[in-house]
Amino acid sequence: MADKAEHAPVETGRAPNMQRADVVDTEAFESVQTHPDVRRDHTDPFVQALRHPHASSPFLVTATVSRTLAERIEDLLPQTQCTKCGYPACRPYAEAIAAGEASYNQCPPGGAEGIARLAGLLGKPVIPLDTTHGVERPRPVAVIDENVCIGCTLCMQACPVDAIVGAAKQMHTVIAQLCTGCDLCVPPCPVDCIAMLPVTGERTGWDAWSQDEADAARTRHDRRTVRLARERAAAEARANARQASRAAPVQAETPTKAQAAAEPQMPVASEDADAKKRAIIQAALERARRKKEEMAQLGAGPKNTEHVSAAVQAQIDAAEERRRRLGLSDEKASGPVDGDKTA
């Protein structure tokens, strides 16, 4: 009887000597059943093997979750996505720490407590915050001066957690409950209408930021990353479609070599086009010359044609030479007028 009592299930529904992390609830069991590699039949040997042999409930299963070091490091970061650590987001910073490419004291929002958490996970000593990446401070929230905002959307594009709402040429505003205080919206604002105001009093680091808020910010950042990737892919697809639609008529109009050989050769019209272009330019110059003469007769001619500098006269001579080469100037108009040059 003593042996039976020793192995009897406890009232919590867990088998003896089972840790809480080893017990998964009904929802987790259902997620295992819906896995494509697992049949929904409860009599499947694989599903039966997942159940703990001593569990008092048929819906208690043993789950083994293997997580990388980078994932565990990321769980300990405040998820403000501020880039102050020198990396574009918290996840790349966690991967750099795991790879030994970055120190674990480069996160100002996490502060001293964040360093202690990472040191405990890594088995390393607690070290001071590297202030070259910023200082530990009360958490701020971005506030937009709506009377000055011009609706440029640059702050919306910079916000890593989609905490700013608005539209082009419309007033923007910050959802204070979603703002992580990352400061990333301040530099791109062209009218300097964003201020970062502390909202946690004297509390700094993890004292000013909860794990629930960090998890929510991480979720919003991940969703934004997926959305931006989807929008970029859609934009590239549209650009490729436009390029293909423009190239299709050109390919259809381009004759093959056999067609070109069979068709009679047509005279090249490039010379005619160049001649027409020169005629148009010459007519425009003639109109400008007549207008200049009329203005001179009225005493409203240009005032800067005398005593020009050598550099300006050299530019005039070069322009006249180009016109002569193109056949756009008269011989009598070529060359500088006597007395225009200065030594």
From TrEMBL:
Gene3D superfamilies found in the cross-reference section: 3.30.70.20, Electron transport complex subunit B, putative Fe-S cluster (1.10.15.40)
A GO molecular function held by the record: metal ion binding
Domain 4Fe-4S residue range list: 64-124
Biased composition regions of type Basic and acidic residues, renumbered to the chain: 319-343
Region (Disordered): 1-23, 229-275, 289-343
Source organism, top-level taxon: Bacteria
Record-given protein name: Electron transport complex RnfABCDGE type B subunit
Key words of the record: 4Fe-4S, Cell inner membrane, Cell membrane, Electron transport, Iron, Iron-sulfur, Membrane, Metal-binding, Repeat, Translocase, Transport
Coiled coil: none
Domain 4Fe-4S ferredoxin-type, chain residue ranges per copy: 140-169, 170-199
Organism of origin: Caballeronia insecticola
Low complexity bias spans: 236-248
InterPro entries the record matches: 4Fe-4S_dom, 4Fe4S_Fe-S-bd, 4Fe4S_Fe_S_CS, Elect_transpt_cplx_RnfB/RsxB, RnfB_subfamily
